[in-house]
Amino acid sequence: MGASQEHIVMLPFMAHGHLIPFLALARQILRMTNFTITIATTPLNTAYLRSAAASDPTLSSAASESCRLRLAALPFNSSDHDLPPNTENPESLTPNQVITLFHSAAALESPSHRLVADIVAEEGRPPICIISDVFHGWATRVAEKIETVNVSFTTCGAFGTAAYMSLWQNLPHKSTDSDEFPVPGFPDSCRFHRTMLNQFVRAADGTDPWSRFLKPQLALSLGSFAWLCNTTEQIEVLGLEVLRKYTGIPVWSIGPLLPPAMLNSNSSTTLTLHSGRESGISTQNCIEWLDSKPNNSVIYISFGSQNTIGSSQMMELAKGLEQSGKPFIWVIRPPLGFDPKGEFKSKWLPEGFEGRISDSKQGLLVRKWAPQLEILRHKSTAAFVSHCGWNSALEGMSQGVPIIGWPLVSEQAYNAKMMVEELGVCVELARGLGSVVTAEEVRRVVELVTEEGGEMKRKAVEIGERMKAAVREEEGRKGSSVKAMEDFVCAILSAAGERRRRAVGVVHG
């Protein structure tokens, strides 16, 4: 579909959870069309994308053989923005520093415009569209200047995105003393709780640093030609209905944007390098450990690429896991208040904990990174203790793994609400960075999900099948996400054709 000379420029936000979905979106478009795609971000993030793309056959082929995938480094100096040197993503930042990184993203507007202008000069016409992160609302101005359209891409789900946008744009919790309140755009029966709000949105008054960034960027994104959403029609019925009404523009659900092997039950492809990160354990050792455990018995614990919990929470989580007697794999990082890239110290866990779980083979502690995709699709994995970031949620649900939710920041609590209330595949263990967690509650929830969670498991498997069906294309039948991607491509081709016809008419006139 499409002509080879068409070009798309992608502008992802500077965070791991945003970069990988953009790379996966590029893979889908390259497989479907003959377009050229340029992904532009900061130098260190470009290097990360290059490493991640090298492990993907479709992307590495498009980059090396046909030059249809190009990675462009935009000039960026973190020190110019009061950030630590060589800081281009949130992974090593404290929660209070993250907003500084967000504001620094605005500095990418001018170099992005120069990049696209150079493409226009080289190719003789504008890219067919710019696909930008919703946090890069300024991309609508870039698109307008070079006479193309901007398509905003939310790497989160529809429900979480709609809730996040409406809460920041309307601050409904400021208009009530009640702990529960409605959120504009959602049915009145769908109440949100004050504990779902992180510290920054709770304190927001419209003039705070977060509001000053988010309100204008989200408003600009609402002026896009359309939106893309990393979800499927079959699992987010309410979320997509709300998001479409809230934005008032087309929203194409083109997810889940996961490695093809995650969505193919018969695939034996190794997924270790999907994240582009070095694991703290070899995939082979991890799988051998999982192979030694009964089916549906292992608890997997990970709080994502840039999150961690407090030291007291970590201590109670460790005690509860040990008391449950269930086997587990835990991706551990230093707790809040310590260098996230620093050495993990045994004092943050109960005395003798690591030795006991190692000797008994009950637990496996993984420093840095684990081969998460391989763990989630293993038959021994029973549940996923997760921060409910959308990428992790999709990865777990796609494999039919129930979620034990511990949302921490951003839209994670809204994702958890949707998975609990709409899908029935999640139980919340805790909520927020400051929540009080006891070992007894950890043990109770783990036992609930593993011993009494048959219905939750059944629903999770059903959701996984729906997700796989959405991206399936066989025997002439296409899943809803495949059709949505085709509709998106047709729409931007049609819009570009109309612009070019008008331009010709103006010249001849």
Report low-confidence residues grouped into runs of 5 or more.
272-276
- The counted number of beta strands is 17
Shape: globular
Gyration radius, in Å: 23 Å
β content, as a range?
5-15%
The major pleated sheet works out as: 7 strands, parallel
Q: Bin the helical content.
A: 40-55%
How would you describe this protein?
- There is one protein chain.
- By secondary structure, the protein is α/β, with parallel strands linked by helices.
- It contains 19 helices and 17 strands.
- The protein has helices spanning 16-32, 43-54, 57-64, 95-104, 109-123, 139-145, 158-170, 199-203, 209-221, 237-247, 283-291, 311-324, 353-359, 372-376, 390-398, 412-423, 439-451, 454-470, 480-508; strands spanning 7-11, 36-41, 69-73, 129-133, 150-154, 180-181, 192-193, 226-229, 251-253, 298-302, 328-332, 363-367, 381-386, 403-405, 426-428, 473-474, 477-478.
- The strands form 4 sheets. It has a 7-stranded parallel sheet with strand order 3-2-1-4-5-8-9, with helices on both faces. The chain has a 6-stranded parallel sheet with strand order 12-11-10-13-14-15, sandwiched between helices.
- β11, α13 and β12 (363-367) form a beta-alpha-beta unit.
- α7 crosses α16.
- The longest helix is centred in the last third of the chain and has 29 residues, at 480-508.
- It is globular and about 75 Å long.
- The two termini are 32 Å apart.
- Residues 272-276 have low confidence and may be disordered.
